[in-house]
């Protein structure tokens, strides 16, 4: 097999580590494609919230080349979870080739029709039913403790602490007092209790509109699943319906959530004695855990990783956070503190916009 390897950085005499990895990936890809006699030129599709980078190339119709640096990304877990998901009847990208030691993958390309780009008020019900149907299949899967880590109390707390460390302390430059630490500890403990009290199932962990793709045959493709855990049944549901990147009207979200409750009862994922009120409480509180965590993660992506684009999504996450925290008396002290102490600081930052209007474009 004879091939020529090129990429966008090939003319540089001094290459960064990232450029060197791109060239090595192009060379590796050339050995995975039979009868390649034309140059392999990688075209970047950018990166995700992690450190993976995605590339298309002319010889790879319906294929993506993936650079997943081993220092930060577990490609073996990606391959294993992809297989697990497909075994449940849910479409994950087929793995064409993998070199997990280098962190190079060649995978199926689902295209560009992300739900984030195509969903609107006219097609939302049909698209989101596809997403809910796939989610139900994942939730009905059999636990594999050797493959899927537990979403336990320690991990829930580590995630919540990202809020304190990166959103509060780093982004807003606010030093927590002893009383504020106590308030957060009490709030976080309540959220952890709700997360652990509900039935435990497969958790994709980022099941939202940017990770769900409408394929050319009308099926739904699921990506970015390598961080999967075994945790609360409402986690992925609220990740989907209270999406950090777009907002649906509250009555629509409630209707979708309660429709899924009925599907979950029929599938014996939850007991029929679980009332609508209790299910929505699970949904709200586990969603609050997620959104508090995301405030920290988006701040960290900006400050540590230089990914500034996530700052524009903070106001919507603040909106979700306050809407839930203000709706429950037990969480009201947290909401009052956030509004009185953190919100005035946030308003001084260039990324801030009125959280009460955030996401109103959908």
From TrEMBL:
UniProt biased composition (Polar residues): 1-18
| Listed GO MF terms | ATP binding; transferase activity
Residue ranges, annotated region (Disordered)? 1-24
For this protein, the record's InterPro entries field holds: Aminoglycoside_PTrfase, Kinase-like_dom_sf
Q: Give the superkingdom in one word.
A: Bacteria
Q: Name one Pfam family in it.
A: APH
Could you tell me the keywords of this UniProt record?
Answer: ATP-binding, Nucleotide-binding, Transferase
**All copies of domain Aminoglycoside phosphotransferase, residue ranges:** 42-262
Q: PANTHER family, alphabetically?
A: N-ACETYLMURAMATE_N-ACETYLGLUCOSAMINE KINASE, TRNA THREONYLCARBAMOYLADENOSINE BIOSYNTHESIS PROTEIN TSAE
Protein name in the entry:
Phosphotransferase
């Amino acid at each position: 097999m004879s091939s020529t390897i090129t990429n966008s950085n090939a003319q540089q005499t001094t290459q960064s580590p990232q450029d060197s990895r791109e060239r090595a990936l192009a060379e590796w890809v050339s050995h995975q494609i039979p009868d390649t006699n034309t140059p392999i030129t990688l075209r970047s599709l950018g990166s995700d919230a992690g450190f993976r980078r995605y590339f298309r190339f002319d010889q790879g119709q319906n294929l993506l080349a993936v650079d997943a640096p081993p220092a930060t990304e577990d490609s073996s877990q990606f391959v294993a979870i992809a297989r697990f998901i497909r075994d449940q009847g849910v479409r994950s990208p087929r793995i064409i080739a993998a070199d997990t030691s280098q962190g190079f993958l060649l995978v199926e390309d689902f295209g560009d029709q992300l739900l984030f780009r195509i969903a609107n008020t006219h097609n939302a019900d049909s698209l989101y039913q596809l997403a809910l149907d796939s989610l139900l299949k994942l939730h009905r899967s059999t636990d594999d403790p050797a493959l899927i880590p537990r979403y336990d109390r320690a991990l829930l707390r580590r995630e919540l602490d990202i809020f304190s460390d990166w959103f509060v302390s780093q982004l807003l430059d606010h030093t927590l007092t002893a009383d504020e630490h106590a308030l957060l500890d009490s709030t976080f403990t309540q959220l952890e209790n709700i997360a652990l009290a509900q039935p435990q199932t497969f958790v994709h962990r980022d099941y939202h509109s940017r990770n769900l793709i409408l394929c050319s045959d009308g099926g739904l493709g699921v990506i970015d699943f390598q961080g999967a855990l075994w945790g609360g049944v409402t986690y992925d549901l609220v990740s989907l319906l209270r999406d950090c990147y777009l907002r649906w009207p509250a009555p629509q979200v409630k209707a979708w959530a309660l429709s899924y409750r009925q599907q979950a009862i029929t599938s014996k994922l939850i007991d029929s004695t679980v009332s609508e009120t209790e299910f929505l409480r699970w949904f709200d509180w586990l969603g609050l855990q997620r959104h508090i965590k995301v405030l920290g993660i988006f701040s960290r992506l900006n400050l540590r990783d230089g990914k500034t684009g996530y700052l524009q999504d903070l106001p919507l996450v603040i909106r979700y956070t306050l809407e839930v925290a203000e709706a429950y008396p037990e969480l009201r002290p947290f909401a009052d503190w956030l509004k009185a102490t953190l919100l005035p600081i946030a308003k001084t930052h260039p990324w801030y916009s009125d959280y009460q209007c955030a996401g109103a474009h959908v």
